[in-house]
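TODO from last week: model Putative acyl-coa synthetase.
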Amino acid sequence: VHQQVWAALNEHGDRIALTCTKTGRSFKYSRLKQLSTNMACWLQDNYSSTDQGTHVATVLPNSVELAISALGALEAGVPIALFNPHYTPFELSLALSVGKPKWVITTSDRVHTILEAMSLSKVEVQIFTVDDDITFSKVKHFEELVSEGGTPNKNFGKHGGIVMYNDGEARKISQKNILANCLQLSQPELSPLEPGDKMAAIIPMWNCHGLTHTLLRGLRSGAEVVTVSHLQPSQILATVNKNKVSVLPTLSSMVDWLTGCKKQDLEGLKSITVSGRPSLLSDRLGCIFKGEVLHSYGPAEGPILFQQRRGSACRAGSVGQLLPGTEARITGPDGNNDLPYNVPGEIWVRGPQLGDGKLWMSTGDQGYYDQDGWFYITEQAEMNVDGLKVSPTELEAVLKQHESVAEAAVFLADKELVAAVVPFDPYKPPSCKELNLHLGTQLAPYKHVCDVVIMSSLPKDSSGEVNRKHLSKNYNPKKELASITYV
Protein backbone atom coordinates (compact mmCIF):
# COMPACT_ATOMS: atom_id res chain seq x y z
CA VAL A 1 0.00 0.00 0.00
CA HIS A 2 2.67 2.50 0.99
CA GLN A 3 4.57 1.88 -2.26
CA GLN A 4 1.50 2.90 -4.25
CA VAL A 5 0.82 5.93 -2.03
CA TRP A 6 4.37 7.24 -2.43
CA ALA A 7 4.85 6.13 -6.05
CA ALA A 8 4.86 9.72 -7.34
CA LEU A 9 6.74 11.22 -4.38
CA ASN A 10 9.42 12.78 -6.60
CA GLU A 11 6.69 14.58 -8.53
CA HIS A 12 4.59 15.65 -5.54
CA GLY A 13 7.24 16.01 -2.81
CA ASP A 14 6.89 19.79 -2.44
CA ARG A 15 3.09 19.77 -2.57
CA ILE A 16 0.94 19.88 0.56
CA ALA A 17 -0.27 16.36 1.36
CA LEU A 18 -2.28 16.90 4.54
CA THR A 19 -3.85 19.89 6.26
CA CYS A 20 -5.42 19.60 9.70
CA THR A 21 -8.29 22.07 10.11
CA LYS A 22 -8.30 21.68 13.90
CA THR A 23 -4.66 22.71 14.43
CA GLY A 24 -3.97 24.58 11.19
CA ARG A 25 -0.87 22.48 10.47
CA SER A 26 0.09 21.42 6.96
CA PHE A 27 2.54 18.70 5.91
CA LYS A 28 4.21 18.34 2.53
CA TYR A 29 4.39 14.94 0.86
CA SER A 30 8.12 14.67 1.60
CA ARG A 31 7.62 15.42 5.31
CA LEU A 32 4.64 13.07 5.65
CA LYS A 33 6.65 10.29 4.00
CA GLN A 34 9.57 10.82 6.38
CA LEU A 35 7.39 10.77 9.50
CA SER A 36 5.54 7.66 8.32
CA THR A 37 8.83 5.89 7.60
CA ASN A 38 10.17 6.86 11.03
CA MET A 39 7.02 5.40 12.55
CA ALA A 40 7.54 2.20 10.56
CA CYS A 41 11.10 1.87 11.89
CA TRP A 42 9.97 2.35 15.50
CA LEU A 43 7.22 -0.25 15.13
CA GLN A 44 9.56 -2.82 13.61
CA ASP A 45 12.12 -2.24 16.37
CA ASN A 46 9.50 -2.79 19.08
CA TYR A 47 7.18 -5.37 17.51
CA SER A 48 7.24 -9.10 18.19
CA SER A 49 4.99 -11.37 16.15
CA THR A 50 5.28 -14.10 18.80
CA ASP A 51 3.46 -12.03 21.44
CA GLN A 52 -0.32 -12.04 21.27
CA GLY A 53 -1.82 -8.71 20.26
CA THR A 54 1.44 -6.75 20.12
CA HIS A 55 0.13 -4.20 17.68
CA VAL A 56 -0.56 -0.50 17.79
CA ALA A 57 -4.02 1.02 18.09
CA THR A 58 -5.35 4.53 17.59
CA VAL A 59 -8.20 6.35 19.29
CA LEU A 60 -8.07 9.42 17.06
CA PRO A 61 -10.41 11.57 14.99
CA ASN A 62 -9.47 12.45 11.41
CA SER A 63 -6.02 13.97 11.88
CA VAL A 64 -2.46 14.07 10.60
CA GLU A 65 -1.35 11.68 13.35
CA LEU A 66 -3.98 9.13 12.34
CA ALA A 67 -2.64 9.25 8.79
CA ILE A 68 0.98 8.89 9.95
CA SER A 69 0.08 5.98 12.24
CA ALA A 70 -1.82 4.08 9.55
CA LEU A 71 0.77 4.69 6.83
CA GLY A 72 3.65 3.85 9.18
CA ALA A 73 2.06 0.58 10.31
CA LEU A 74 1.28 -0.44 6.73
CA GLU A 75 4.88 0.27 5.69
CA ALA A 76 6.21 -1.64 8.70
CA GLY A 77 4.03 -4.67 8.03
CA VAL A 78 2.62 -4.39 11.56
CA PRO A 79 -1.14 -4.70 12.24
CA ILE A 80 -2.86 -1.55 13.45
CA ALA A 81 -6.30 -1.30 15.08
CA LEU A 82 -8.29 1.85 14.37
CA PHE A 83 -10.70 2.30 17.29
CA ASN A 84 -13.70 4.60 17.13
CA PRO A 85 -12.77 7.82 19.01
CA HIS A 86 -16.41 8.23 20.12
CA TYR A 87 -16.33 5.02 22.16
CA THR A 88 -17.24 5.10 25.83
CA PRO A 89 -14.94 3.42 28.40
CA PHE A 90 -17.21 0.36 28.30
CA GLU A 91 -17.04 0.02 24.50
CA LEU A 92 -13.32 0.68 24.46
CA SER A 93 -12.75 -1.93 27.18
CA LEU A 94 -14.38 -4.54 24.93
CA ALA A 95 -12.16 -3.44 22.04
CA LEU A 96 -9.04 -3.69 24.23
CA SER A 97 -10.07 -7.15 25.44
CA VAL A 98 -10.43 -8.41 21.87
CA GLY A 99 -7.50 -6.61 20.25
CA LYS A 100 -5.04 -6.51 23.17
CA PRO A 101 -2.90 -3.73 21.66
CA LYS A 102 0.48 -2.92 23.16
CA TRP A 103 0.42 0.80 22.34
CA VAL A 104 -2.48 3.22 21.98
CA ILE A 105 -2.17 6.62 20.28
CA THR A 106 -4.77 9.18 21.26
CA THR A 107 -5.52 12.78 22.22
CA SER A 108 -5.09 14.05 25.77
CA ASP A 109 -8.85 14.49 26.24
CA ARG A 110 -9.32 10.74 25.66
CA VAL A 111 -6.68 9.55 28.13
CA HIS A 112 -9.20 9.34 30.99
CA THR A 113 -11.44 7.15 28.81
CA ILE A 114 -8.57 4.82 27.92
CA LEU A 115 -7.41 4.54 31.54
CA GLU A 116 -10.94 3.62 32.62
CA ALA A 117 -11.16 1.12 29.75
CA MET A 118 -7.85 -0.41 30.85
CA SER A 119 -9.25 -0.84 34.36
CA LEU A 120 -12.43 -2.50 33.07
CA SER A 121 -10.64 -4.81 30.62
CA LYS A 122 -7.56 -5.58 32.76
CA VAL A 123 -5.47 -4.89 29.64
CA GLU A 124 -2.36 -2.75 30.13
CA VAL A 125 -1.25 -0.50 27.27
CA GLN A 126 1.31 2.23 26.77
CA ILE A 127 -0.47 5.48 25.91
CA PHE A 128 0.98 8.07 23.52
CA THR A 129 -0.74 11.44 23.10
CA VAL A 130 -0.52 13.58 19.98
CA ASP A 131 -0.79 16.94 21.75
CA ASP A 132 1.30 18.69 24.38
CA ASP A 133 -1.20 18.49 27.24
CA ILE A 134 0.38 15.55 29.07
CA THR A 135 -0.72 15.64 32.70
CA PHE A 136 -0.70 11.90 33.34
CA SER A 137 2.20 9.84 34.61
CA LYS A 138 3.53 7.13 32.29
CA VAL A 139 1.89 8.78 29.27
CA LYS A 140 4.36 9.46 26.46
CA HIS A 141 4.30 11.83 23.52
CA PHE A 142 3.66 10.80 19.92
CA GLU A 143 6.91 12.53 18.94
CA GLU A 144 8.85 9.57 20.39
CA LEU A 145 7.41 7.33 17.67
CA VAL A 146 8.50 9.50 14.75
CA SER A 147 11.64 11.29 15.93
CA GLU A 148 14.30 8.83 14.77
CA GLY A 149 14.94 7.96 11.13
CA GLY A 150 16.05 4.78 9.45
CA THR A 151 15.17 2.34 6.71
CA PRO A 152 12.39 -0.18 7.36
CA ASN A 153 12.95 -3.84 6.59
CA LYS A 154 10.92 -4.56 3.44
CA ASN A 155 10.77 -8.27 4.31
CA PHE A 156 9.77 -7.75 7.93
CA GLY A 157 6.68 -9.93 7.85
CA LYS A 158 3.20 -10.54 6.53
CA HIS A 159 1.30 -9.50 9.64
CA GLY A 160 0.34 -6.03 8.41
CA GLY A 161 -3.17 -4.84 7.82
CA ILE A 162 -5.98 -2.85 9.39
CA VAL A 163 -7.83 -4.38 12.33
CA MET A 164 -11.42 -3.16 12.54
CA TYR A 165 -13.43 -3.60 15.73
CA ASN A 166 -17.22 -3.66 15.90
CA ASP A 167 -19.96 -5.49 17.80
CA GLY A 168 -17.46 -7.14 20.14
CA GLU A 169 -15.49 -8.70 17.28
CA ALA A 170 -12.29 -7.80 15.46
CA ARG A 171 -11.68 -8.46 11.79
CA LYS A 172 -8.47 -7.89 9.90
CA ILE A 173 -8.46 -6.31 6.47
CA SER A 174 -5.31 -7.29 4.62
CA GLN A 175 -2.98 -4.95 2.77
CA LYS A 176 -4.01 -6.78 -0.39
CA ASN A 177 -7.68 -5.87 0.14
CA ILE A 178 -6.87 -2.25 1.00
CA LEU A 179 -4.57 -1.83 -1.98
CA ALA A 180 -7.07 -3.42 -4.37
CA ASN A 181 -9.88 -1.07 -3.31
CA CYS A 182 -7.56 1.95 -3.50
CA LEU A 183 -6.49 1.04 -7.05
CA GLN A 184 -10.09 0.37 -8.10
CA LEU A 185 -11.24 3.77 -6.85
CA SER A 186 -8.25 5.51 -8.46
CA GLN A 187 -9.24 4.50 -11.99
CA PRO A 188 -9.77 7.57 -14.22
CA GLU A 189 -13.37 6.60 -14.98
CA LEU A 190 -14.13 6.60 -11.23
CA SER A 191 -11.90 9.19 -9.58
CA PRO A 192 -12.29 12.95 -10.09
CA LEU A 193 -8.98 13.61 -8.31
CA GLU A 194 -6.03 15.28 -10.00
CA PRO A 195 -2.67 16.41 -8.57
CA GLY A 196 -3.16 19.63 -6.64
CA ASP A 197 -6.86 19.07 -5.92
CA LYS A 198 -8.03 19.64 -2.36
CA MET A 199 -10.25 16.92 -0.90
CA ALA A 200 -12.09 17.16 2.42
CA ALA A 201 -11.71 14.08 4.66
CA ILE A 202 -15.16 14.06 6.26
CA ILE A 203 -15.81 10.30 6.19
CA PRO A 204 -14.06 8.82 9.26
CA MET A 205 -10.57 7.65 8.34
CA TRP A 206 -10.65 5.24 11.28
CA ASN A 207 -12.67 2.76 9.25
CA CYS A 208 -11.84 0.98 6.01
CA HIS A 209 -14.25 3.08 3.95
CA GLY A 210 -12.82 6.46 4.90
CA LEU A 211 -9.20 5.31 5.02
CA THR A 212 -9.31 4.01 1.45
CA HIS A 213 -11.84 6.39 -0.09
CA THR A 214 -10.23 9.59 1.18
CA LEU A 215 -6.74 9.27 2.66
CA LEU A 216 -5.08 6.60 0.50
CA ARG A 217 -6.82 7.50 -2.75
CA GLY A 218 -6.19 11.20 -2.16
CA LEU A 219 -2.47 10.80 -1.46
CA ARG A 220 -1.99 8.39 -4.35
CA SER A 221 -3.51 11.02 -6.67
CA GLY A 222 -1.22 13.81 -5.48
CA ALA A 223 -4.12 15.71 -3.91
CA GLU A 224 -4.17 17.64 -0.64
CA VAL A 225 -6.30 15.89 1.99
CA VAL A 226 -7.97 18.35 4.38
CA THR A 227 -8.94 16.54 7.59
CA VAL A 228 -12.25 17.41 9.25
CA SER A 229 -12.90 15.96 12.72
CA HIS A 230 -16.52 17.11 13.14
CA LEU A 231 -19.69 16.29 11.22
CA GLN A 232 -21.66 19.47 11.87
CA PRO A 233 -22.84 20.88 8.51
CA SER A 234 -21.85 24.46 9.34
CA GLN A 235 -18.29 23.39 10.14
CA ILE A 236 -18.04 21.31 6.98
CA LEU A 237 -19.16 24.20 4.79
CA ALA A 238 -16.78 26.58 6.57
CA THR A 239 -13.93 24.12 5.97
CA VAL A 240 -14.84 23.67 2.30
CA ASN A 241 -14.88 27.40 1.63
CA LYS A 242 -11.95 28.43 3.82
CA ASN A 243 -9.62 25.76 2.43
CA LYS A 244 -10.92 26.04 -1.15
CA VAL A 245 -11.82 22.35 -1.27
CA SER A 246 -12.59 21.09 -4.78
CA VAL A 247 -13.57 17.45 -4.11
CA LEU A 248 -16.04 16.46 -1.38
CA PRO A 249 -16.56 12.76 -0.55
CA THR A 250 -19.64 12.62 1.66
CA LEU A 251 -22.36 10.29 2.94
CA SER A 252 -25.96 9.84 1.84
CA SER A 253 -27.05 11.00 5.31
CA MET A 254 -25.54 14.41 4.54
CA VAL A 255 -27.42 14.94 1.28
CA ASP A 256 -30.33 16.52 3.17
CA TRP A 257 -28.29 19.49 4.34
CA LEU A 258 -26.37 19.72 1.06
CA THR A 259 -29.65 20.22 -0.80
CA GLY A 260 -30.47 23.00 1.65
CA CYS A 261 -27.27 24.90 0.84
CA LYS A 262 -27.19 27.99 -1.32
CA LYS A 263 -25.65 27.58 -4.75
CA GLN A 264 -22.83 29.96 -3.88
CA ASP A 265 -21.86 27.76 -0.90
CA LEU A 266 -20.90 24.96 -3.31
CA GLU A 267 -19.44 27.01 -6.16
CA GLY A 268 -15.83 26.12 -5.33
CA LEU A 269 -16.46 22.38 -5.60
CA LYS A 270 -15.95 20.49 -8.84
CA SER A 271 -17.10 17.07 -7.60
CA ILE A 272 -19.20 15.49 -4.83
CA THR A 273 -19.17 11.74 -4.19
CA VAL A 274 -22.11 10.41 -2.16
CA SER A 275 -21.51 7.06 -0.43
CA GLY A 276 -24.48 5.02 0.71
CA ARG A 277 -27.98 4.20 -0.40
CA PRO A 278 -29.40 7.22 -2.30
CA SER A 279 -32.12 9.19 -0.55
CA LEU A 280 -35.17 10.79 -2.13
CA LEU A 281 -33.31 14.10 -2.09
CA SER A 282 -30.30 12.82 -4.05
CA ASP A 283 -31.78 13.94 -7.37
CA ARG A 284 -32.29 17.46 -6.02
CA LEU A 285 -28.57 17.81 -5.38
CA GLY A 286 -27.97 18.02 -9.12
CA CYS A 287 -30.32 21.00 -9.33
CA ILE A 288 -28.32 22.96 -6.77
CA PHE A 289 -24.81 21.77 -7.57
CA LYS A 290 -23.71 22.11 -11.20
CA GLY A 291 -20.51 20.10 -10.79
CA GLU A 292 -20.05 16.34 -10.93
CA VAL A 293 -22.10 14.15 -8.55
CA LEU A 294 -21.06 10.50 -8.23
CA HIS A 295 -22.78 7.77 -6.19
CA SER A 296 -21.00 4.82 -4.55
CA TYR A 297 -21.90 2.06 -2.13
CA GLY A 298 -20.34 -0.51 0.18
CA PRO A 299 -21.11 -2.09 3.56
CA ALA A 300 -20.91 0.27 6.55
CA GLU A 301 -17.25 0.88 7.46
CA GLY A 302 -16.23 -1.58 4.71
CA PRO A 303 -14.81 -1.42 1.17
CA ILE A 304 -16.57 0.22 -1.78
CA LEU A 305 -18.28 -2.27 -4.11
CA PHE A 306 -20.28 -0.09 -6.51
CA GLN A 307 -19.78 3.34 -8.02
CA GLN A 308 -21.21 5.40 -10.83
CA ARG A 309 -18.81 5.97 -13.75
CA ARG A 310 -17.78 9.52 -14.50
CA GLY A 311 -19.57 11.09 -17.43
CA SER A 312 -22.62 8.84 -17.06
CA ALA A 313 -25.98 10.23 -16.05
CA CYS A 314 -27.03 8.97 -12.64
CA ARG A 315 -30.06 6.70 -12.60
CA ALA A 316 -32.53 7.54 -9.85
CA GLY A 317 -32.11 5.28 -6.82
CA SER A 318 -29.03 3.48 -8.18
CA VAL A 319 -25.80 3.00 -6.22
CA GLY A 320 -23.83 2.67 -9.46
CA GLN A 321 -22.08 -0.18 -11.21
CA LEU A 322 -19.59 -2.78 -9.99
CA LEU A 323 -16.01 -1.66 -9.46
CA PRO A 324 -13.41 -3.13 -11.86
CA GLY A 325 -12.64 -6.76 -11.02
CA THR A 326 -15.73 -7.13 -8.81
CA GLU A 327 -18.51 -9.62 -9.53
CA ALA A 328 -22.04 -9.83 -8.15
CA ARG A 329 -24.98 -12.20 -8.28
CA ILE A 330 -28.56 -11.91 -7.07
CA THR A 331 -30.01 -15.05 -5.49
CA GLY A 332 -33.42 -16.19 -4.33
CA PRO A 333 -34.38 -17.26 -0.79
CA ASP A 334 -32.48 -20.55 -1.06
CA GLY A 335 -29.23 -18.72 -1.87
CA ASN A 336 -28.52 -20.96 -4.86
CA ASN A 337 -30.56 -19.90 -7.88
CA ASP A 338 -29.33 -16.78 -9.67
CA LEU A 339 -32.08 -14.32 -10.53
CA PRO A 340 -32.30 -12.32 -13.79
CA TYR A 341 -32.10 -8.55 -14.01
CA ASN A 342 -34.86 -6.42 -12.45
CA VAL A 343 -35.76 -9.22 -9.99
CA PRO A 344 -34.90 -8.39 -6.34
CA GLY A 345 -32.99 -10.85 -4.20
CA GLU A 346 -29.96 -11.17 -1.94
CA ILE A 347 -26.76 -9.56 -3.23
CA TRP A 348 -23.59 -11.67 -3.23
CA VAL A 349 -20.21 -10.27 -4.27
CA ARG A 350 -16.60 -11.24 -4.71
CA GLY A 351 -13.55 -9.25 -5.70
CA PRO A 352 -9.96 -8.38 -4.79
CA GLN A 353 -11.12 -5.97 -2.05
CA LEU A 354 -12.87 -8.84 -0.19
CA GLY A 355 -11.10 -11.72 1.57
CA ASP A 356 -9.09 -13.88 -0.80
CA GLY A 357 -11.02 -12.49 -3.77
CA LYS A 358 -12.28 -15.94 -4.78
CA LEU A 359 -15.12 -16.77 -2.41
CA TRP A 360 -18.61 -15.36 -2.83
CA MET A 361 -19.64 -13.23 0.16
CA SER A 362 -23.18 -12.21 1.04
CA THR A 363 -23.71 -8.52 1.69
CA GLY A 364 -27.00 -9.34 3.41
CA ASP A 365 -28.56 -6.52 1.39
CA GLN A 366 -31.56 -7.01 -0.85
CA GLY A 367 -31.51 -5.48 -4.31
CA TYR A 368 -31.41 -5.97 -8.06
CA TYR A 369 -29.62 -4.82 -11.21
CA ASP A 370 -31.01 -3.56 -14.50
CA GLN A 371 -30.14 -4.67 -18.02
CA ASP A 372 -27.24 -2.18 -18.16
CA GLY A 373 -25.58 -3.39 -14.95
CA TRP A 374 -26.76 -0.61 -12.62
CA PHE A 375 -27.47 -1.85 -9.09
CA TYR A 376 -30.25 -0.81 -6.73
CA ILE A 377 -30.50 -1.50 -2.98
CA THR A 378 -34.06 -2.18 -1.83
CA GLU A 379 -33.25 -3.17 1.76
CA GLN A 380 -30.06 -2.84 3.80
CA ALA A 381 -29.01 -5.59 6.19
CA GLU A 382 -26.89 -3.35 8.38
CA MET A 383 -28.00 -0.35 10.38
CA ASN A 384 -25.71 2.63 10.15
CA VAL A 385 -25.81 6.22 11.33
CA ASP A 386 -23.73 8.70 9.33
CA GLY A 387 -21.81 5.76 7.85
CA LEU A 388 -21.05 4.21 11.26
CA LYS A 389 -22.21 0.65 11.81
CA VAL A 390 -24.77 0.14 14.57
CA SER A 391 -25.78 -3.22 16.02
CA PRO A 392 -29.45 -3.21 17.14
CA THR A 393 -28.84 -6.18 19.44
CA GLU A 394 -26.09 -4.25 21.23
CA LEU A 395 -28.46 -1.34 21.93
CA GLU A 396 -31.30 -3.65 22.90
CA ALA A 397 -29.13 -5.49 25.42
CA VAL A 398 -28.22 -2.20 27.12
CA LEU A 399 -31.81 -0.91 27.02
CA LYS A 400 -33.07 -4.07 28.73
CA GLN A 401 -30.70 -3.37 31.61
CA HIS A 402 -32.83 -0.33 32.47
CA GLU A 403 -35.10 -0.94 35.44
CA SER A 404 -38.24 0.16 33.53
CA VAL A 405 -37.70 -1.89 30.35
CA ALA A 406 -39.08 -5.41 29.94
CA GLU A 407 -38.46 -5.72 26.18
CA ALA A 408 -36.81 -3.49 23.59
CA ALA A 409 -36.27 -3.41 19.84
CA VAL A 410 -34.25 -0.85 17.89
CA PHE A 411 -35.00 0.04 14.28
CA LEU A 412 -34.22 2.72 11.70
CA ALA A 413 -36.76 5.32 10.64
CA ASP A 414 -35.64 7.93 8.11
CA LYS A 415 -31.98 7.20 8.98
CA GLU A 416 -32.60 7.79 12.70
CA LEU A 417 -32.51 5.21 15.49
CA VAL A 418 -35.81 4.57 17.25
CA ALA A 419 -36.46 2.29 20.23
CA ALA A 420 -39.67 0.32 20.65
CA VAL A 421 -40.04 -0.45 24.35
CA VAL A 422 -42.37 -2.64 26.41
CA PRO A 423 -42.23 -1.24 29.97
CA PHE A 424 -42.71 -3.29 33.12
CA ASP A 425 -45.26 -0.72 34.29
CA PRO A 426 -47.35 0.74 31.42
CA TYR A 427 -48.28 3.67 33.66
CA LYS A 428 -44.63 4.59 34.24
CA PRO A 429 -42.94 4.30 30.83
CA PRO A 430 -39.35 5.57 30.45
CA SER A 431 -38.78 8.77 28.49
CA CYS A 432 -36.43 9.18 25.54
CA LYS A 433 -34.15 11.40 27.62
CA GLU A 434 -34.08 8.86 30.44
CA LEU A 435 -33.15 5.98 28.12
CA ASN A 436 -30.47 8.00 26.35
CA LEU A 437 -28.89 8.85 29.69
CA HIS A 438 -28.85 5.12 30.38
CA LEU A 439 -27.41 4.30 26.93
CA GLY A 440 -24.76 6.97 27.48
CA THR A 441 -23.28 5.04 30.40
CA GLN A 442 -22.09 2.35 27.99
CA LEU A 443 -22.50 3.44 24.37
CA ALA A 444 -21.25 6.28 22.17
CA PRO A 445 -23.65 9.18 21.43
CA TYR A 446 -24.26 8.18 17.80
CA LYS A 447 -25.90 5.01 19.17
CA HIS A 448 -28.52 7.00 21.09
CA VAL A 449 -32.14 6.98 19.93
CA CYS A 450 -34.08 9.95 18.58
CA ASP A 451 -37.46 8.66 19.77
CA VAL A 452 -39.06 6.00 21.97
CA VAL A 453 -42.28 4.16 21.08
CA ILE A 454 -44.11 2.59 24.02
CA MET A 455 -45.81 -0.71 23.14
CA SER A 456 -47.74 -3.41 24.97
CA SER A 457 -45.86 -6.09 23.00
CA LEU A 458 -43.31 -6.27 20.18
CA PRO A 459 -44.30 -7.60 16.73
CA LYS A 460 -42.60 -10.94 16.07
CA ASP A 461 -42.45 -13.36 13.17
CA SER A 462 -43.24 -17.07 13.21
CA SER A 463 -39.76 -17.91 14.53
CA GLY A 464 -40.14 -15.53 17.48
CA GLU A 465 -37.76 -12.90 16.09
CA VAL A 466 -38.68 -9.21 16.40
CA ASN A 467 -40.03 -7.89 13.10
CA ARG A 468 -38.04 -4.65 12.73
CA LYS A 469 -39.31 -4.17 9.19
CA HIS A 470 -42.86 -3.98 10.54
CA LEU A 471 -41.78 -1.47 13.20
CA SER A 472 -40.02 0.73 10.67
CA LYS A 473 -42.86 0.60 8.15
CA ASN A 474 -45.55 1.47 10.71
CA TYR A 475 -43.58 4.03 12.72
CA ASN A 476 -45.47 7.28 13.24
CA PRO A 477 -43.01 9.93 14.44
CA LYS A 478 -43.96 12.50 17.01
CA LYS A 479 -44.16 16.12 16.00
CA GLU A 480 -41.01 16.91 17.94
CA LEU A 481 -38.24 14.34 18.15
CA ALA A 482 -35.54 14.45 20.78
CA SER A 483 -32.35 15.43 18.96
CA ILE A 484 -28.91 14.04 19.63
CA THR A 485 -25.74 15.89 18.66
CA TYR A 486 -22.29 14.35 18.89
CA VAL A 487 -18.79 15.53 18.08
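Done. The chain has three domains: 1-229, 260-383, 391-474.
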